[in-house]
Amino acid sequence: MMRRGMTLIELMTSLGVMSILVLAMGSSVMIASRTLPQPGGEAEARGAAARGWTVIAEDLRMASEVTITDGMWIDLTIPAANEENPDRIVRVGATAEQPDVIVRVSEPGPAGLLISGVSDVSFTRRLAARGDQRDVLRASFSIAGHAFVAEQRLLNERDDS
Asked: Partners of 77 in the beta sheet?
């Protein structure tokens, strides 16, 4: 007699093997998804901090005068390109109304958001060491529990003494 089809044992065995393969594939997908960067994680926070600091550093490079106000604001005087235009004043810091963001206010011009989700914003000035000719502005803040510290040498600041 010729057999047609499969026995119940063969069917159950193939179903068991298939379920083990599906379980293994599901586990590998779950493990792979955990290795992806999480939204709001350290990599994203570092990127946001770097983008914001790049804008601040560009202003600091051009500033002829830097004043730290309340430790949370810096006021920068950026000289005009020619004598006909007035110097530009740029303020960077965290406001009392929104202490969790660092904004850049350029006069004249609108305010712009630089870094959001920050806490513990602090700007300090480190005096030049003996061999250095310029002071350094140091900014420290936290994003999503990750602390960041950045420094920029004040290249164009005028020495009025």
From this structure: 65, 89
